[in-house]
Amino acid sequence: MARAGGITNAVNVGIAVQADWENREFISHISLNVRRLFDFLVQFEATTKSKLASLNEKLDVLERKLELLEVQVGTASANPSLFARDA
Amino acid sequence: MAVPVEEAIAALSTFSLEDEQAEVQGREFGFRLIAAQRIVPSYSDVSAYRLSLTEDTKALNQLNALIQEGKEMGSVLYTYRSCVKALPQLPDNMKQSQADLYLETYQVLDLEMSRLREIQRWQASAAAKLAADMQRFSRPERRINGPTVTHLWSMLKLLDTLVQLDHLKNAKASIPNDFSWYKRTFTQVSVQWHDTDTMREELDDLQIFLSTRWAILLNLHVEMFRVNNVEDILQVLIVFAVESLELDFALLFPERHILLRVLPILVVLATSSEKDSESLYKRVKINRLINIFKNDPVIPAFPDLHLSPVAIMKELSIYFQNEALTCYTYQRHYLIINHIGSIRAEHDDFAIRFSSSMNQLLLLKATDNPDIDWCKEVKGNIYDMVVEGFQLLSRWTARIWEQCAWKFSRPCKDIVPSETQEALASFSDYEKVVRYNYSAEERKALVELVGYIKSIGSLMQCNDTLVADALWETIHAEVQDFVQNTLATMLRTTFRKKKDLSRILSDMRTLSADWMANTSKSESGSLQQGGDESKGNFFYPRPVAPTAAQAHCLQFLIYEAVSGGNLRKPGGLFGNSGSEIPVNDLKQLETFFYKLRFFLHILDYSVTVATLTDLGFLWFREFYLESSRVIQFPIECSLPWMLVDYVLESQNAGILESVLMPFDIYNDSAQQALVLLKQRFLYDEIEAEVDHCFDIFVSKLCDSIFTYYKSWAASELLDTSFLFALDNGEKYSVEPMRFTALLKMTRVKLLGRMIDLRSLIADRMNKVFRDNIEFLFDRFESQDLCAIVELENLLDILKHAHGLLSRDLSIDSFSIMLNEMQENISLVSYCSRLASQIWSEMQNDFLPNFILCNTTQRFTRSSKVPLVPIQKPSVPSAKPNFYCGTKDLNAAHQSFARLHSGFFGMPHMFSIVRLLGSRSLPWLIRALLDHVSNKIAAVEPMITGLQEALPKSIGLLPFDGGVTGCMRLVKEQLSWGTKSQLKSEVLRGIKEIGSVLYWLGLLDIVLRETDTTHFMQTAPWLGLLPGADGQILHSQDGGESPIVNLFKSATSVIVSNPGCRNPTSFHILSKQAEAADLLYKANMNTGSVLEYALAFTSAALDKYCSKWSAVPKTGFIDITTSKDFYRIYSGLQIWYLEESVRVTPSSHEVLGDSIAWGGCTIIYLLGQQLHFELLDFSYQVLNVAEVESASISQAHKSPHFVQGWDGLLEVMKKARRLNNHVFSMLKARCPLEDKTACAIKQSGAPLHRVKFENTVSAFETLPQKEA
Predict the structure, then answer these.
(1) Tell me: the pLDDT tens digits for B220-270?
(2) Which of B886, B1032, B1112, B1263 might form a disulfide with B830, Cβ 3.0–4.6 angstroms?
(3) In a domain, B384, yes or no
(4) What residues 536-595 of chain B have any CB closer than 8 A to a CB of chain A?
């Protein structure tokens, strides 16, 4: 055999190749969409995280404000005489 | 499945996935890289195409497995760290257990050495297999198909692995070291063992292997030439490598580097004899080889290890070294800095075009039934962009690799140490090649390039699934077009006669054609006959790409067709003119051949992107660690950190946003450490460094953010018109920097962790603002009261900076922070830190040591030595950003502050009012008033003492003696006897009282002004109208003020609108308007602080009224014997006036004008003003002087009459004018008319002092000082 090549059963191979193309179209369609779902999840996680972060930030600010108010109320209630109206 | 996938995904896309965060960091490829490492194509489906490639595929898989193993060996070797250094030494008292130590050491080292032994064994078998493979596939009388092109590549790769391993073995000095130690312990340990000969032999073997340079290659050489027929395949490989390198189309940089590394070795192997080299040069002109070697004198091999082909050639080849291999080193070529301009242009251009074609694609997807041509065009465009992107990325990353290799090969020679000179000797090699080897410009270029690579990488990566089907479709179309059209044409024309060739071509069609993709055009498969269309077939797109095996087979067949299956065929692959194939067809085949290779990269989209953007190698320094004999280098030597540091230090707005990019290098290297090198300790080291770096990074970043916003605020608060007029005004403007993107980073990816950078920055900012306020107060406390203007200015800047920063970052509100630092949180405390500081400052320094100048309305520090010594903490020092940011701005604001640092006047009072606010100000006033009453109480016994010292009676001063006589008389009368030391005490007391009252007067003016402004602002809202006689009228339309009306009507309109979502909030708004109305109306008529203070003083004086203002027994005015206050004050006044003329540091410089304020106020409030004006000694002297001057001027016509007394007289006149001023002011502010009216009894006797009620309850409204 001087040359390479020479598919032994060309017709069968051709049919198999054709079937292979079709099967693979189905497979790649599925896999691509699975990947898209996955991408969506990744992105969803990312945006959710940043939304949570901004929520967290707001809560932090509120928490600190609340702490301050608590202290203020605490000082006030510790000295009730100052705030009681003269009876 | 109820919902189709398409629809489900379309539904998902309606989710809002918008993200605040900018893409200033690369993407993570974590699991993809792992996948890339694990999955090696096995080509198991090749056999399905029945091309008789079984043998080839088997060999191919074997080689691939070897490559994989070899890479692991390489990483073992690369990460090998010397054990000997860590071995313990026995202390003297434990010498007896030396044998145990040897045994332990032996066991430890044995483990390591067994790995080396494994490497030795592996390389032997790999070399043998490679040689066998080459021989098998290169026999001229070939019986099996192959080698395929993929096979060639695998051979090259395996060769490369061997070369790398060899190179590494040569470079690692610790391995022979460890080995010799191992051998020594072995001889010690093995004494007790039997039968150690084989082990010893093995050891010797290993020693030879380890100590021989290029042992692996020499072994390979021997293996190959055991049977002497590998020249053909070597030549083929050389031709293949040279052509690929010269064409440089389908090569990504890892492949290019492989070829460059392997080529010298191949040449060495192929020129092992004179004959061989001749035959090689017949096929490949030697100039081509030399050109390649010259262009790339340095090739990266490992992260911190490079190869020099020329050196290898010189060392290994016997025949090649004769050739002129002088190596020209083109530094320009290697340095990124020389290319960065064009790279920048490429990047910008590509990013725009890529995005626009992405937009086109999105548009296409959104269109129903798009035009097929348009569809094809858009998708083709995407394909082109992806190809271009890969090529760009590959080129850029290769540049970084090559620059690194270059830098490693050219250590910095002349280090300019920034620190001490003595450290010069101790620079490690690594510092020479990295730390001092990159100039600032080069670092900048590197940061920029890293940024480009990472951003393009992530741009491409995030569109992965979007472009995937477009790419598949385009590739499918390309392949189908070639197989169905181009090949059909070729078959019909040129190859019709050549049976062999046409069979190959039709095989190609068989194994890859997708006939059914165009079924709608022609139903039958009859197109195999060629079809009638001359223009070729039209395909319906099918988004499926060919498999790796298909590409492999196609490549093989093309190669086969071109080369004719003959390895000996002279000339190159496609550059062969002697072929049977026409040039035109050859060209087409060639193009498709290289395209096929690139298809694989594109199909492996995300892995390719990950490989091309992997910059982890920039961190690794195993080789230098070993040669420097240290455990790890400090982070200053670490290239990623150098880049981060450079970005932060350079303050370059352009690259600031890339500051996170170098951290991607750490991500990449951590990934490499775990996945490629599989070494936990490396990861731990990286992690430790990253932790450390990130901490420093955050603190440095916060520092520069704070400085930037601070200086921005400071420069905005400078007077703009003044700056405009200034020549060097630009000095004070701040270069704009964009921190916004960084401030939005809520997810910084770092070694698999997510870090909320924004909250980290916010935390630090909260802290640094508090620290700064604290510092400003500390600073104020270490200065005197005059610094209040500076304090206010600095606080204003800080507040403005806070305002600017809180646009981008949510931090605590400034007033909260200020209150916190002022210790003013409590609702029941009115004394803030600042108020108490002002008070103590006034008490201890201001009142005793400052003197008033009535004309300028300023207090200044007495030039005399302070009477009351002051002790203050030293001025705390801080970085410039705790003042105004930059040094220039500090200077500018300081020169402004200096204007106010020498006195206390209106501006200071304004500052005090603004800083203390209505909360702490009453506290301060109360403290001051208490001070006044305390002072009066303190002065009282002294006054009594002086009263006692007063002679029984002092008559009116006689006119006959003239001024001289009067003064003599005064001196005689007012000697004060023993009590004369009380005089200055009393004067100081009165002066302090006067100072307080004047101070309150200033405060009154300022408060009036503030109140008026406030009133003007609120009046229109409250419906206050100016009446005819200056009265305030309330507008009476509807009984409610405009603000309430406005909000009520607005609310009713909004609420009546049916679209209104939450009416309650508007109702609340209108209620709040009512509350505001009430509050502001109540605040309308504020009293005067000064009047209040005078009333308070008057009340305080009531106690002493009987003593200081005795009712004369006669009922008439007591002229001579009175010991009332005014009398005492008169005496004191004339004494100190005289003193002030006589003594050089005049008493006026100690007392100032406030003495008059104190004295006159008390006199006035005691109702003794008229007595004083009538009977004051100095007034009498002035009267005498007037008469005298009149008489003298009549006699002598000379203005200079009373020689020697004019100085005193001048001072007296001044004092009288001042006293008159004070009295008139007092009359205006604290009128006693309604009280003087009833001051004469019905009997006609005057009532000297009317007690008018000071309602005590009024004073209780002020907070107590102690509170």
Answers:
(1) 888 888 766 777 788 888 888 888 888 877 778 888 899 989 888 888 888
(2) B1263
(3) no
(4) 542-545, 547, 556-557, 560, 564-565
The Cα B1191–Cα B191 span in angstroms is: 137
The domain tally of chain B equals 6
B18 close to A (CB below 8 A): yes
Q: Which residue has the higher pLDDT, B128 or B1085?
A: B128
Q: Is residue B1224 part of a domain?
A: yes
In a domain, B401, yes or no: no
Q: From B1023, B1247, B954, B1261, select the one nearest B1116 (Cα to Cα).
A: B1247
Peptide bond before A80: cis, by omega within 30 degrees of 0? no
Do B1076 and B1138 fall within a single domain? no
CA nearest to B446, candidates B672, B640, B619: B640
Cβ contact, residue pair B504, A50, below 8 Å = no
Task: Locate B387 and state its tokens.
Answer: 């190809």
Contact between chains at B52 and A79 (C-beta distance less than 8 A):
no
Q: Which residues make beta-bridge pairs with B858?
A: B853
Report chain A residues whose CB lies below 8 A from the CB of B758: 53, 57
Q: How far apart are the first and last CA of chain B?
A: 76
- Rounded-to-integer distance, Cα B960 and Cα B942, Å: 34
Residues B208, B311 share a domain: no
Q: Are residues B1144 and B1212 in the same domain?
A: yes
**DSSP states of B456-498:** HHHHHHHTHHHHHHHHHHHHHHHHHIIIIIIHHHHHHTTTSS-
Residues B1147 and B1247 in one domain: yes
ipTM score: 0.87
Residue in chain B lying closest to A25 (CA): B544
Amino acid identity of residue B793, one-letter, is N
The torsion defined by the Cα of B723, B727, B732 and B737, in degrees rounded to 10, comes to 110
Q: Is B512–A25 a contact, with Cβ atoms under 8 angstroms apart?
A: no
Give the separation between CA A25 and CA B547, rounded to whole angstroms: 12
Alpha-carbon span B1126 to B430, nearest angstrom? 89
Interface list for A 29-58 with B (CB within 8 A): 29-30, 32-33, 35-37, 39-40, 43-44, 46-47, 49-50, 53-54, 56-58
CB contacts < 8 A, A to B, total 155
Q: Is the dihedral of CA B1185, B1186, B1192, B1197 positive or negative?
A: positive
Residue B1123's SS3 state is: coil
Pairing of strands B305-307, B299-302: antiparallel
Contacts of B531 (CB under 8 A, 6+ apart): B488, B522, B537
Say whether B810 and A61 touch across the interface (CB within 8 A): yes
pLDDT higher than threshold 90 for residue B637: no
Mean pLDDT throughout B857-878? 75
Domain chopping of chain A, boundaries: 13-77
Read off the pLDDT of each residue in B938-961 and give the average, rounded to a whole number: 84
Amino acid at A87: A
B1012-1038: string of b/e by CB count within 10 Å (b at 16+)? eeebeebbebbbbeeeeeeeeeeeeee
- The two tokens of residue B624 are 């230098």
CB contact under 8 A, A28 and B504: no
Is B1120 a domain residue? yes
Tell me the pTM.
0.87
Closest residue in B to A36 (Cα) is: B465
Whether pLDDT at B1168 is above 70: yes
Least Cα separation, residue B13 to chain A (angstroms): 8
Distance CA B311, CA B293 (A): 10
Contact B1167, B1249 (CB under 8 A): yes
Query: Residue B936 pLDDT more than 50?
Result: yes
Instruction: Give residue B1227's domain range.
Output: 940-1007+1091-1260
Q: Which two tokens stand for residue B674?
A: 């775990």
